[in-house]
């Protein structure tokens, strides 16, 4: 858990959920595939953040049926629908400012506990929750097609009275690898 003071972001693209208690569902790198397991995991969210590489506008439309959505554009989002989505931005949840972008390597401003409570990014497909200099960094991993032998995940961020608790949710446990028994002299019975 990370204790934060309420902070205020000033941006024209700011969305807001002001309740002192707030559950934020975080998803990224769907690449056009919104798994039923992800939908189930995000139910009950007061806000859903999509950290880019959405794939299709229909992914956002489906998420909007669960809760309000704040999304950023990823490096694989193209077309008229994607151009309307910001590359980064602040969203308020539980009275705290969260900064969202797709690729953490493109962070172009110094962030600290006075400017935001958490930074949310995707891109790497590697789930991560880490606190650095009073700021919580969250990467929900990838919820889309399995890539790079990484788990399929989303994240949840619970905000209660300015306390942040983030957790990664594994949507698809690793598939078992079955190998046939090797055929050879080792498997033959001795005469």
Could you give a quick summary of the protein structure above?
This protein has helices at residues 36-42, 57-64, 80-83; strands at 2-3, 15-17, 21-27, 47-50, 69-71, 88-93, 96-101, 118-120, 128-132, 135-139, 152-160, 163-172. By secondary structure, it is mainly β.
Notable characteristics:
single chain, 191 residues, mainly beta, Purple Acid Phosphatase, chain A, domain 2, six-stranded mixed beta sheet, globular
Overall CATH architecture = 4-Layer Sandwich
Gyration radius, rounded: 19 Å
CATH homologous superfamily placement: Metallo-dependent phosphatases
Low-confidence stretches: 1-14
Helix content percent band? under 10%
Shape: globular
Beta-strand residue fraction: 25-35%
CATH fold name, please?
Answer: Purple Acid Phosphatase, chain A, domain 2
The helix tally amounts to: 3
N- and C-termini, Cα separation: 66 Å
Neighbour order of strands in the largest sheet? 1-12-11-3-4-5
Mean pLDDT: 83
Domain count, please report it. Answer: 1
Helix/strand order, N-terminal first? EEEHEHEHEEEEEEE
The description of the largest β-sheet is: 6 strands, mixed
Secondary-structure content class: mainly beta
CATH uppermost class: Alpha Beta
Question: What is the tally of beta strands?
Answer: 12
Question: Can you walk through the features of this model?
Answer:
There is one protein chain. The chain has one domain (2-187): Purple Acid Phosphatase, chain A, domain 2, CATH 3.60.21. 10% of the residues lie in helices and 33% in strands. It has helices at residues 36-42, 57-64, 80-83, and strands at residues 2-3, 15-17, 21-27, 47-50, 69-71, 88-93, 96-101, 118-120, 128-132, 135-139, 152-160, 163-172. It has a six-stranded mixed β-sheet. Strand 4 (47-50), helix 2 and strand 5 (69-71) form a beta-alpha-beta unit. The longest helix has 8 residues, at 57-64. The termini are far apart. Residues 1-14 have low confidence and may be disordered.
């Amino acid at each position: 858990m990370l204790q934060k003071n309420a902070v205020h972001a000033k941006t024209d693209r700011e969305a807001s959920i002001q309740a002192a208690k707030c559950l934020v569902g975080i998803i990224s790198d769907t690449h056009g595939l919104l798994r039923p397991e992800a939908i189930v995991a995000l139910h009950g969210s007061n806000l859903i953040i999509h950290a880019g590489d959405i794939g299709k506008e229909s992914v956002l439309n489906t998420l909007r049926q669960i809760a309000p959505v704040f999304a950023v554009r990823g490096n694989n989002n193209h077309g008229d629908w994607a151009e309307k989505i910001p590359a980064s931005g602040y969203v308020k949840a539980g009275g705290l400012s969260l900064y969202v972008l797709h690729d953490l390597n493109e962070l172009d401003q110094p962030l600290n506990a006075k400017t935001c409570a958490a930074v949310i990014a995707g891109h790497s497909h590697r789930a991560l929750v880490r606190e650095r200099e009073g700021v919580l960094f969250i990467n929900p991993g990838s919820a889309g097609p399995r890539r790079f032998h990484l788990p399929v995940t989303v994240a949840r961020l619970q905000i209660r009275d300015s306390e942040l608790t983030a957790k990664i949710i594994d949507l698809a446990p690793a598939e078992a690898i079955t190998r046939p028994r090797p055929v050879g002299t080792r498997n033959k019975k001795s005469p």
